[in-house]
Every structure is written in structure tokens, then in C-alpha cells.
Design goal:
There is one protein chain. Helix content is about 25%, strand content about 30%. By secondary structure, the protein is α+β, with helices and mostly antiparallel strands. It has one domain. The strands form two sheets. A five-stranded antiparallel beta sheet has the order 3-4-5-7-6. The termini are far apart.
Length: about 170
């Protein structure tokens, strides 16, 4: 699948979900998880990016995060969430999702440029804009365990958009 359809699908999910404040009625509570009525999301805190992000439960243990400087599309930083394959599969982990951090002005320019989108804006805090971009496609050989798990993780974030909480 190419990047444009993935981003479009992700945008539709985000539009349907809208931004949800943490205290909104209907959010999963600890009691829901304990009772088995809901699964606990996998939470990651990025001290470098100054945000927290919640992924679907299936992501737990299947990724590693790497923060670094990034100037793509005018951003100033990125936290990449890379697939963590089983060592027995003998494949390298590839990026599933990237969260780029832009200044407000840089994001305005990036969003207005022609061509494929730089990502989908998920949150904003002060002069920081948090933008998520999905992998352009599955880099693994079809039918392999790595390809199957990569697809499962990507479908989970498309169907259950991650929530970013700026810090």
C-alpha cells in the first residue's frame, strides 16, 4: 500500500474519532481493564519530544522508539517507532510510525506544499505541532511472519488512531 492511501485512511479515522480529552466520558478506566471490559493501551513517554502517545495493545513489545534531529519538511525533531522483529526472523526493524515535531510556522508551510502530505497533525502545544506519518508500505516479504506482524501493527493504528498528549 502506498503512503497516500495509508495517510488518507488514517485521516478518516482521526476525523471520525476527533481529539479526545483524557477526561471524556467513555474513556477506558483502570477498572475497565481490570474487569476485562477493555484492553490497556500501550503508553510511551518521549522525554525528547515532550509528548506521550498511546498505541493499541497489540503494539506492546513489538516496537522500539528512537528520537533524533530531523529537518524533513521543515520539522526540527522526530521520534520513530520502529518494528521490533523476532531475532529468529533475521530481518531489520523498519519504521512503522514517525512523530515529527514542527514549529507552527514550519507546519503551516509543510501543510501547504504540493505533493504527498508530510503527515497528519495530531496535537499542538505552544509553538510545537505534533504530526504523525505512517510507513509507506510493508517492507517485508509477503507471507512471512515479519510481514504479517507488520501489517497487524499498521492496521491496529489505522483502526485505533494513537492519541498524543503534549507535555
Amino acid at each position: 500500500m502506498t503512503k497516500a492511501p495509508l495517510l488518507l485512511a488514517f485521516a478518516l479515522v482521526l476525523t471520525a474519532c476527533g481529539e479526545r480529552p483524557v477526561t471524556k466520558k467513555g474513556d477506558v478506566t483502570a477498572a475497565d481493564v481490570i474487569a476485562g471490559a477493555a484492553q490497556s493501551l500501550d503508553h510511551y513517554e518521549s522525554p525528547e519530544g515532550k509528548f506521550g502517545i498511546d498505541f493499541p495493545p497489540v503494539w506492546k513489545g513489538n516496537y522500539v522508539a528512537a528520537a533524533h534531529t530531523d529537518t524533513a519538511f521543515g520539522s526540527h525533531a522526530i521520534v520513530e517507532f520502529r518494528f521490533k522483529p523476532d531475532p529468529a526472523w533475521k530481518v531489520q526493524g523498519q519504521t512503522l510510525v514517525g512523530v515529527r515535531i514542527f514549529t507552527t510556522d514550519a507546519w503551516t508551510k509543510a501543510a501547504a506544499r504540493p505533493g504527498p502530505p508530510a503527515g497528519i497533525k495530531l496535537a499542538e502545544r505552544g509553538n510545537d505541532v505534533f504530526v504523525v506519518a505512517l510507513a509507506a508500505g510493508n517492507p517485508y516479504k509477503p507471507g512471512t511472519p515479519a510481514a504479517d506482524l507488520f501489517d497487524k501493527l499498521m492496521l491496529a493504528v489505522i483502526n485505533n488512531a494513537p492519541r498524543i498528549t503534549p507535555r
